[in-house]
Amino acid sequence: MPTKTMKAIQQHEFGGPEVLLYEDSPVPEIKPGEVLVRVHAVGLNPPDWYLRDGYKMLPPEWQPKVDFPVILGTDISGVVAAVAEDVTAFSIGDEVYSMVRFPSGLAGGSRAYAEYVSVPATELALKPAGIDHVHAAAAPMSLLTAWQFMIDLGHNEPNPLQPYRHEPVPLEGKTVLVNGAAGGVGQFALQLAKWKGARVIAVAAGRHEAFVRDLGADEFIDYTKTKVEEHVHDLDLVIDAVGGPTTGRFLPTLKRGGALFPIFPLGFSGADEAEKLGVTVSSVQVRSSGAQLAQLADLLAAGTVRVGVDSTFALADARSAHDRAARGGVQGKIVLTVK
Question: Omega before 47 cis (within 30°)?
Fold first, then answer.
């Protein structure tokens, strides 16, 4: 069993990376149905800096109430240190990975930037064989997002982003454009589309061309030199891994009956235009799923899906990791390592 205290990155106020403090914190106590994981690596995701900053990008009525101190993070890979008496699927010593309590932990309940984290057993899966903890920790949120958008939603929870259920679309033989193809979600969207038999056009900055072509892109567009919406047409699906207010510019690139899936849908205002063009615009909030991570572990172990890692930082150096994220141009994922 672990000691009663651990090192963690905590914050006691909202702000920039400077509010992230490397401090002592109590080791979490596991409840029925939970597993205690000794963390070896933590993957960074946009919700980490959204929470750090106080979710300023959300409308006030959507901003969750946060109790300090807060420990950020959701994505972990590590080794099982203890299991609750009612947990039979995992044993001490198992190598595992997870996206912890998302979206239920939006207000800081996931607590992954730490040496130990408690995880509901239903959100845990055995780590993919043949890849290390760094690459395993880089996968969960981004890969689950791409999977739930494109392959299998995997739940029947009401969609907080739209009144209708999100439905993936058939990919075989289709032409799919992935905007932000070198980023966390984009790299996986590209690979899943290729796996399902689509022709994929990857959009990213020129310096990422070799990276996305290596992942299987059939065509590459450097958005710093070419206006994508003026270059392509008759697409079946656009995965906009950047999203936001500019996502509507992709509507004219789609054929009637096509679909636009913005990963970050806030700010989209083209619903009327989409209806006129006969284009479906749909989004969904990613949700934790140990069962889906178990499926994805097979793809990761086989090398069918690969994980790009931009950079790694020690847990104690989380500020620098957030600084790296803020500079943009990330190729793959940023990961914290935990000794």
Answer: no
Q: Is it true that the peptide bond before 64 is cis, omega within 30 degrees of 0?
A: no
Provide the terminal-to-terminal Cα distance of the chain, rounded to the nearest Å: 17
Beta bridge partners of residue 96, listed in sequence order: 78, 126
Reported pTM: 0.97
Half-sphere exposure of 211 (CA within 13 A, CB side): 25
Would you state the torsion angle of the CA atoms of residues 302, 307, 308, 310, taken in this order, to the nearest 10 degrees? Answer: -140
Give pLDDT tens digits for 213-223.
999 999 999 99
pLDDT band at 132; cut points 50, 70, 90: very high
| Element containing residue 212 per DSSP (H, E) | helix 209-214
216 token code pair: 């299987």
Taken in order of first residue, the domains within the chain and their CATH numbers are: 5-141+287-337 (3.90.180.10), 167-281 (3.40.50.720)
